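INTERNAL AUDIT FORM
Audit reference: QA-55
Scope: verify that the stored structure record matches its stored sequence.
Auditor: D.O.
Record contents follow.
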Amino acid sequence: MKLTDAVYNIPTVGQSYFAKLKKLRIETIEDLINHIPRRYKDFTNIKKIKGLKANETASVIVDVDSIKNEYTRRRFVVQKAVVSDETGVCNVIWFNQRFIPRNIPKGSKVCLSGIVERVGNKLVISSPEYEIIKDNRYLIHTARLVPVYPETKGISSKWLRSKIHTALDLICDSLEEFLERDILGKYALEDLVSSYKKVHFPESLSEAASAKKRLAFNEFLFLHFKSLIRKNDWQNTKPSYRLIVDKKIIKDFTHSLPFTLTPSQTQSAEEILTDLEKNYPMNRLLEGDVGSGKTVVAAIAAFISFINEKQTVIMAPTQILAQQHFDTLNNLFGKYKIRVSLITSETQKKALGKTDIFVGTHALIHKKVILDNVALVVIDEQHRFGVEQRAHLVKRSKKEKKSPHVLTMTATPIPRTVALTVYGDLDLSTLKELPKGRKRIKTWIVPEIKRQAAYVWIEKLIKLEKIQAFVICPLIEESVVESMQQIRAATAEYESLKSVFPNLTLGLLHGKLISTQKLKVVELFRNGKIDILVSTPVVEVGIDVANATVMLIEGSERFGLAQLHQLRGRVGRGDKQSYCLLFTKTISGNSIKRLKAMERSMSGFELAELDLKIRGPGEIVGVKQHGFGELKIASWGDINLIKDTKEAAQMIYKKPKMFKKITKYLNLADIAMN
């Protein structure tokens, strides 16, 4: 049996279980053995019945003297057993598990692992795990460190334990170690076979941790290799438009701007301009905090494309953001004859004559737009697009086998080590500071007791200073799900706030509005016709209103720090003092720790690092929504392992002949020839 065989080839799995396993991302035997435990139950305290004590977790090997289902007056079914060993007799009880008397009939020898309780003057083992002892068979469910796995309906940890144990027996002899001894020694790694056995059935927690480290090493190593191969393929097989960069013209352009570039804007622009002069296409990620000025840097690159008589395509995830870019670019290029067109599913605003810069949504892929001379493709908030969408846009922009330069941008703060792993095939530029003159946004946690006082303060501020405010709610409609009851849905909140602020004008924005309605609401808000905009997090990207200085976020504890930071970045765009109010009913725990960090820090990257430690990477970049690289074994928080595996991947990639095992395993024969 091979690792690549479908998991239904394992005895007693079959097609019905295969369908359930898919929900756990398990389709092959390799997927199954890489489905590692999330924790372990400690059943290593093995006792005789005479030595049992109340309130301890213990394991006993006993004979079943009697066992039966007993029905109570309230129609509950209780399973009662009497068990014994050479030192004494003990009672055992389970609840609502009618099948147990069939599974462990009278006369069986069984191992029980569970909590010992005192009932009256007797000791009782309550709801223990059980395992029939036959022919000195290896115990996997009791009397040891017992693995507990991520589960799904119809797939329990006990079932997974049995199938993984069977799978390891079937394939261990065929598992081939693919790392050289030098690599294993340098990074203190277990061999492959031992790692799989010990991560699933360890003798100690330290043994399990060592085994998991080896398997996590594999996962990161393969990620780095994918990036190195993609980067090599991009550079070696895709000729590009080699653009001429006239530094004097660039200097004149930057001096024409109504502001001075920050040091990191200048550095990032220089890195991009250097790329544009190379004989292979740029593939760079521009990462910058909310309001750090990524659009300006992209505009400099687009300006180079323009003076080389080439076109630029800029794709944004939403119509609101596309409109924002369209307006911004027209302002930046006001002194130059650069023609900008806006292409979305709803609109197609074109400047007169030929287009130099196309700005749009995914409609750029589907509409019949002639992209016949494109030298630069800019993809904003790139993690919000699928891989195929990005690739299709680049493919549409090709001409005569020439690939355009590609600049991807994100305002989602991603810790550098994570970015360099996930986007390892991209060169990375980072905008580290905000433009001068921006005032720090005052951020406060607002408990429920201060809600009414906050409303009074907001209304007073709007009337006296003629400013505007956002109110953000995560849902559109009231949810019947109990865990979401504290979240004020946008529609319900909009109706509620109309009575709270009867003398102010309120607007409502959410994802179910059609595009023309969204644009109308945004335009009214931008023109000062709406005092308070009640919205779902659709405003996270793209709405830039300098007069909006108050950001109120309901149920703030339910957001990741990165998203809270991006929402906060919608205010503070002008010269007025801005405020972010984090409304919450939570008063303790990690949630308050995270919200306190929002009060202290204005750095998205600092907050992302903290969120990585507390909540994991899915909350940084939206794994569930946007398909960010999800790990099965490794953790994005393991910075040292990321660094070690990157070092190992580069070492192997540069000298493949020294590492023949992994070169063969990963089919890297082509690079070994170089």
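Auditor finding: record pair retrieved intact. The two ends are 35 Å apart (CA to CA).
Action required: none
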